[in-house]
Amino acid sequence: MSDRLDRLKALADTLEDSIAQADPEKRGPLAAQFRATLADIEALDQDAKAGDPIDELAKRRSARGAGTASGEDRPARGSR
């Protein structure tokens, strides 16, 4: 994912330079692509910050205690 993020950031830099140098009638499509690229970068950054969902589940189970994931600490049904 890091390679994709790096490539998107390089693309954003290129688009930004292109917008500054482009004729006014060509800036609209370049700006639209620039916004889309920034949105992709933001989404990848959010995914990286969130971490792997499997790892997150494992951390939550570990924090609760190993027995709760298998139901060992739960009372039997009807025993309340």
Distance between the first and last residues' Cα: 49 Å
> Which ranges are low-confidence, i.e. pLDDT below 50, for 5 or more consecutive residues?
none
Largest sheet: none
Secondary structure class reads: mainly alpha
What is the string of SSEs from the N terminus onward? HHHH
Biased composition (Basic and acidic residues): 49-59, 71-80
Region (Disordered): 49-80
The gist of it:
The chain is mainly α. Helices cover 76% and strands 0% of the residues.
Describe, in plain words, how this protein is organized in 3D.
- This protein is mainly α and 80 residues long.
- The protein has one domain (2-67).
- Helix content is 76%, strand content 0%.
- The protein is built from four helices and no strands.
- Helix 1 (2-21) runs antiparallel to helix 2.
- The chain is elongated, with a radius of gyration of 23 Å.
- The N and C termini lie far apart (49 Å).
- Residues 49-59, 71-80 have a biased composition (Basic and acidic residues).
- Residues 49-80 are annotated as: Disordered.
What keywords describe this structure?
single chain; 80 residues; mainly alpha; 4 helices; elongated
SSE topology:
Layout: H1 2-21, H2 27-50, H3 53-64, H4 66-70
Helix pairs in contact: 1-2
